[in-house]
Amino acid sequence: MSLVEERKQQPANRSDGELVVGIRQSNEKDFTLLYERYYQRVYNFSYLRLRNHADTEEAVQETFTAVFRSIDAFQGKSSVISWIYGIAKNTVNNSIRRAIAREQRVERAESEMIQNLYSTYAADPEDHLRLQRCEESIRSRLESVSDWQAQIFVMRHVDNLPIDEIVSRTSRSNDSVRSSLCRVKRMLVEAIESGGEAARAASLQGGGV
């Protein structure tokens, strides 16, 4: 039996360098082996920064997707796992930046909603239409949210309860609470944005309100 045939029968014994060569040749088995070999280490590395299982899983998938797409850029100046860690670090940082950006968008959207509500009586017809469209869009999107998710959102953003307190009151995991909050926030931002666009479209179609 040749050395090549022996290694094919014992894929787990292949070195990282051999896997890189195989991946460059579009060998899916080699990529799968590399993924399985380092998945847990990349997951642990990412979780230390993100502290959320759902976000970490997403970051890990993005990391290995980037590994596959940029495999030709690996020059062998460091170990394969060090190179992967570098990609994971960039991916996690991007995830954190996106989360911060989402929070800022939510804050701006919430501020805008409050301003609109307080100025309802003084607003012109176009503002009234925009507010109405936003409210309709929000109600429509929130219909897909379960009662416990709505309850968690109220606890956090109306009652200003800390995450730990919400976890204790609802008997939900920390990750479940955080994921639910992120989902509802995204839905609200999308609803506000789509509602505003719908109002503008209706205004244009009607030649002004």
What does this protein structure show overall?
There is one protein chain. The protein has 209 residues and is mainly α. The protein folds into two domains: 3-97, RNA polymerase sigma factor, region 2, helix turn helix motif (Rna Polymerase Sigma Factor, Chain: A); 119-205, Arc Repressor Mutant, subunit A, CATH 1.10.10. It has nine helices and no strands. The longest helix has 39 residues, at 80-118. The chain is elongated. The mean pLDDT is 78.
| Count of beta strands | 0
Large-scale geometry: elongated
User: Can you name the CATH architecture of the largest domain?
Assistant: Orthogonal Bundle
**What is the subunit organization of this protein?**
single chain
Which class do the helix and strand fractions yield? Answer: mainly alpha
The succession of helices and strands, N to C, reads HHHHHHHHH
How much strand content do the residues show? under 5%
Q: What is the CATH homologous superfamily assignment of the largest domain?
A: RNA polymerase sigma factor, region 2, helix turn helix motif
Q: Could you give the topology of this structure?
A:
Blueprint: H1 3-9, H2 16-24, H3 28-50, H4 53-69, H5 80-118, H6 125-142, H7 147-157, H8 163-170, H9 174-205
Annotation keywords:
209 residues, mainly alpha, Rna Polymerase Sigma Factor, Chain: A, 78% helix
Briefly summarize what is shown:
The chain has 209 residues and is mostly helical.
